[in-house]
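Section 5: illustrative case.
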């Protein structure tokens, strides 16, 4: 089993990233069997689709590395690195650009969302983004990719690219990766709008809980989270058509391990004024140790760089044979 996943180092880690992906990364790392390997990386090459000043980009990569270690990624057991240090990703992306079809990329909903109305003004990088993501996965022959729901379509594309490459060149080179998507927390929604996912790029900071938020900020954000005027139902069935309520109860369930039905039964008939302090408290208790560790690690740039450099060496060693085989399959002499 080879586990691989990535995160863009833009903005800070938020609760959606944590519950949708990172918590699963840590679980898979902790349950890893001998002979299995986990690769986790900062998708800095993907993040060039958003303009950022040089110094900020450097800061972002180190901060996200610190956040992942604080959340439980152990750089001795898992291979933790930033994509720019492992050129095999970009090289394989170019080779796969010969395989991926424009029609396939045209169907990517994330491109449509991010490009907005001005498609002609969007960068080529934003369009080709999913091919680089396919290369990230295929260059390690990853078998399992733990991600949130929003990455499912990109994973399907990676499988399509792998299949077509293998068929076109008559090889059995790329493994088809399986997405690992948590059932209950695949899509954590914005605290301000139950129809939008929680996201780093939402202009309202009140829409998300950041790993860097202090206790007071967390409590405030929960208190101000959008809800509806109805009391809590007796069971989770009564949450249908109430996206904000469903999201908040889902978050508490994910953090406390309690079933949504049990939470509803506990607060049945009461308003959100009773429920929100309970959610705030569990959030504060869960995030405080991660934040404390993050703040300790964040100051030590030399230690973070050393972790990422060591990770990149290990990652390159794992990626290079696949990359070499891809060049060879295509008849590109080196
Ligand atoms: P990114 O940086 O947007 O998000 C990182 C991970 O967090 C998950 N996620 C969520 N899960 C649940 N609810 C939410 N509101 C939420 N917001 C984010 C994402 O699904 C993701 O798993 N393209 C990827 C990075 C990437 C990658 C890869 C992932 C690049 N190459 C190869 C896997 C394999 C991205 O932008 O994730």
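Designed sequence:
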């Amino acid at each position: 089993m080879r586990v691989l996943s990535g995160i863009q180092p833009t903005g800070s880690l938020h609760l959606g990233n944590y519950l949708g992906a990172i918590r699963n990364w840590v679980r898979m790392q902790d349950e890893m069997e001998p002979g299995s390997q986990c690769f986790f990386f900062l998708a800095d090459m993907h993040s060039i689709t958003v303009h950022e000043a040089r110094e900020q980009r450097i800061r972002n990569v180190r901060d996200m590395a610190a956040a992942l270690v604080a959340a439980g990624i152990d750089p001795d057991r898992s291979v933790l690195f930033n994509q720019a240090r492992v050129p095999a990703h970009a090289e394989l992306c170019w080779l796969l650009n010969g395989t991926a079809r424009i029609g396939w990329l045209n169907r990517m909903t994330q491109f449509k969302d991010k490009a907005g109305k001005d498609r002609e003004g969007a960068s080529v990088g934003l369009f080709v983004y999913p091919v680089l993501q396919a290369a990230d996965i295929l260059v390690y022959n990853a078998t399992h990719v733990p991600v949130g729901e929003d990455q499912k379509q990109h994973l399907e594309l990676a499988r399509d690219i792998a299949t077509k490459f293998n068929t076109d060149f008559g090889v059995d080179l790329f493994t088809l990766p399986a997405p690992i998507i948590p059932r209950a927390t695949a899509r954590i929604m914005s605290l301000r709008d139950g129809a939008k996912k929680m996201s780093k790029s939402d202009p309202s900071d009140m829409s998300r809980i950041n790993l860097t938020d202090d206790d007071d900020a967390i409590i405030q954000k929960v208190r101000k989270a959008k809800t509806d005027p109805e009391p809590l139902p007796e069971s989770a069935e009564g949450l249908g058509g109430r996206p904000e309520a469903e999201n908040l109860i889902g978050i508490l369930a994910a953090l406390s391990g309690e079933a949504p039905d049990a939470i509803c039964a506990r607060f049945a008939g009461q308003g959100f004024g009773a429920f929100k302090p309970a959610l705030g408290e569990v959030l504060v208790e869960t995030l405080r140790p991660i934040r404390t560790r993050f703040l300790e690690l964040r100051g030590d740039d030399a230690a973070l760089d050393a972790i990422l450099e060591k990770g990149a060496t290990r990652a390159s060693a794992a990626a290079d044979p696949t990359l070499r085989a891809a060049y060879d399959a295509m008849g590109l002499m080196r």
